[in-house]
Amino acid sequence: MKHCINCCIHLLPNDLHRQCFRCRGPSHNNQKCPVCKGENKNHLYTDSKQMKLLAVLEVRTDHSESWNGFFCLKKGKLCSLIFGLIIMTLVMASYVLTGAKHGLLLIPSPFHYGAFTSNPSLMDNESLSDMKDHYQSSKINISYVKDYPSIKLIIDTITSKIEFITRQRPDLEELRKQEPHMFSVIPNKFLPNSKNPCWYEEYRGNTTTDPYTTNSYALYSKRFRTIFDYLRKVFWNHLYHYKDKHYRLRCLPHFYIIGQPKCGTTDLYDRLRLHPDVRFSAIKEPHWWTRKRFGIIRLRDGFHDRYPVEDYLDLFDLAAHQIQGVLQSEAAKEHSKTNNIIIGEASASTMWDNNAWIFFYDNSTEGEPPFLIQDFIHAFQPNAKLIIMLRDPVERLYSDYLYFASANKSAEDFHEKVAESLQLFENCMLDYSLRACVYNNTLNNAMPVRLQVGLYVVYLLDWLTVFDKDQILVLRLEDHASNVKYTMHMVFQFLDLGPLSEKQEALITKSPASNTRRPEDRSLGPMLPTTKAILRDFYRPFNTKLAQVLFDDAFLWKRT
């Protein structure tokens, strides 16, 4: 094996390494070479042989780790190495891109997050200060901040299209044509000696007849079968016998907690049912007026058989039995005692959910429903009392998202869903009225988050077209959370309930809050400041109108 000590490269047996002028093959003579002549040489003697020190240091052994071996790798191995590097590069690029988008990077990019900065002219000082107070130490994705100007244009378009137009009430005869069976079951007048609306209905079955055999609530939900099993056992004992006929006491609710979802209605329900004069339906939220009477269990699952009004009335049989006990007591008969027990119903969809109208009613009103839930409730119960619990619509929407979203929940995902929902709402507002968009079934199902539920004033104004203002009590969750005793006293007074003992009042007001946010949802933290600013802008004109209607600036939610 020959070596070029000047170039440190192995020479193959037949290679003269002619590119180096210092090497001329086996005949090369340093003494005769004009380049090599005269160079100082250091020699090393090994095994009695003289060797150049430089040669000893520079000569490489002939094995696979030599430079020549590196350049002579087989082409297959070299291709495999290059292919592997390409695959690794693509995987890393995919990780960086997707991780950056969804916030999954283990080490965040210094360009991906930063303190919230935005053009102050694009939002009012109040929104900005609110965000600084609430998110002093938080950081947000800059890309979401950049969304603000474009989404602000969408909100401005929506705001420019807002018109609060009073709807026309339908005639009673028109309502009868739509629901003839309901009007045949519920009478025009109720028992005069009962504070709660009740009446006697003839029962034509016998002792072996099961009155709840066809009840849809019992058929479709296992949770309620235990209740109906009990009702079957005591049913015959609570019939009123008169002239060889049997009568059962039927009742409707005296008051309704009609909304809104994620606004504290469950907590209000749990406290109110502790009052000795208050009873509720067998289940908290029957959703009969809004969904079940149309055959809707879950709208995404399509339609089932419609729940008749009798199935709804069955839910109040437990309370009706107690009211009947009061009415038939000896003291009541002798002194004409009036029953003071009242029944409540707490479906939080009653105020806003009219999604089914498009499938059952005439669609010739430019997208607006010709009949609403309140039209029918008022037709049967013109003296009904309504309780509404509201909260800051911005916070309500985030709570709603955390509660109903099934997977991949995050502040970033919420922001994207809000942006998409606003775009869909804007598209509707360009072609239809505000009321048509709010009650638009297709739009409401398409929006990833339920923006429309927070448009409180739109629904309230429609309820005020059929009910008097003194029949509706509107509360704020923020007030209820800070002073439960005060809000419960307001409710007691509104429902004209009797006084409570100190022990009873303490039981009602000092009970722990119900239906609070789940621990796993709390761990996700608050929404992004930009999302909050966007939603504040969207809901602002609606909150302003609501405060005007209720003569209360607290419903502006400026400090939340």
TrEMBL record:
Keyword Oxidoreductase: no
UniProt cross-references to SUPFAM superfamilies, sorted A to Z: P-loop containing nucleoside triphosphate hydrolases
Organism: Asarcornis scutulata
Record GO biological process: hexose biosynthetic process
The protein's Enzyme Commission number: 2.8.2.-
Similarity comment text for this entry: Belongs to the sulfotransferase 1 family.
Name listed for the protein in its UniProt record: Sulfotransferase
Underlying gene: Chst15
Keywords recorded for this protein, A-Z: Membrane, Transferase, Transmembrane, Transmembrane helix
PANTHER family from the UniProt entry: CARBOHYDRATE SULFOTRANSFERASE 15
Domain (Sulfotransferase): residue spans on this chain: 253-517
